[in-house]
Amino acid sequence: MELKNKVVWITGASSGIGEALSYAFAKEGCKLVISARRESELQRVKTSTNLTDDSILILPLDLENHVAAPEWVSIILAKFGRIDVLVNNGGLSQKGTAMQTTTEVERKIMEINYFGNIALTKAVIPVMQKQQSGHLVVTTSILGKFGLPFHTTYAASKHALYGYYDSLRMELKPFNINVLLVAPGFINTNASINSLNADGSISNQDSPAQMNGMKTGVFAKKLISALKRNKQHIYIGNKELLAIPFKMLLPKLFYTIMDKMSKGK
Q1: End-to-end alpha-carbon separation of the chain, Å?
Q2: Distances in Å between the alpha carbon of 171 and those of 95, 146, 162, 175, 186?
Q3: The one catalytic residue among 23, 114, 154, 235
Q4: Would the pTM count as exceeding 0.90?
Q5: Is 164 among the catalytic positions?
Q6: Per-10-residue mean pLDDT for the chain, 265 residues long?
Q7: DSSP state of 143
Q8: What are 187's strand-pairing partners?
Q9: What are the structural domains of the chain?
Q10: 193 close to 205: Cβ distance less than 8 angstroms
Q11: Contact 265, 212 (CB under 8 A)
């Protein structure tokens, strides 16, 4: 896939992976739409891309208010006339035992990570069908492939994305629309700090795994490389990715270790 002059819409673009992707796509010569809740941070990212106003659009949004998705798409079309790539990256993490996590927190996580994600995709698909081309890039997680203690709802939301997009990919093939599922391992972002506790409060605590994780700039380069090669799925991370084949090949031992992790909390 040639990226130059393509219109790329990135959610969660105000920090972390989304911010790094904004810079990486800008270097590829793309036109950008950057979205997140914090408009001031989006303005900072816009300035750092060095793109002119003709080549970048700030579109603040809250994925929890995903009923407005068609309106957001209309704003993009009014400026650029098309959408070539949607990077569905916005999301929210969670910490807390299943029994302590409130229903309100569970619903909020699912509204943002799953329903908000899907709403953007369904609003963009008609545009891509008309174009007879497009790429949907979805940031999932390695926790979309296995569970982890104290992340029950987050893992559930990521598992749900796999089921949805693996099915949707086949439906969209006749329209030349590609789906790339990207499963990050531990990436050096503020995801843990910004995650919700069981009662809905903000964690404000980082995790050693996240602190020592892959740099976002490295992640962005690997994602763009996969997109250019029209890949359908990619894991991006370090040694934590070994958990995926480990679960498949030695499931009993895998679950024993997960149990010990749970008791050691």
Answers
A1: 45
A2: 35, 26, 15, 8, 31
A3: 154
A4: yes
A5: no
A6: 96 97 98 97 98 98 97 98 98 94 97 98 98 98 91 96 98 97 93 90 82 92 98 95 88 79 52
A7: G
A8: 214
A9: 7-263 (3.40.50.720)
A10: yes
A11: no
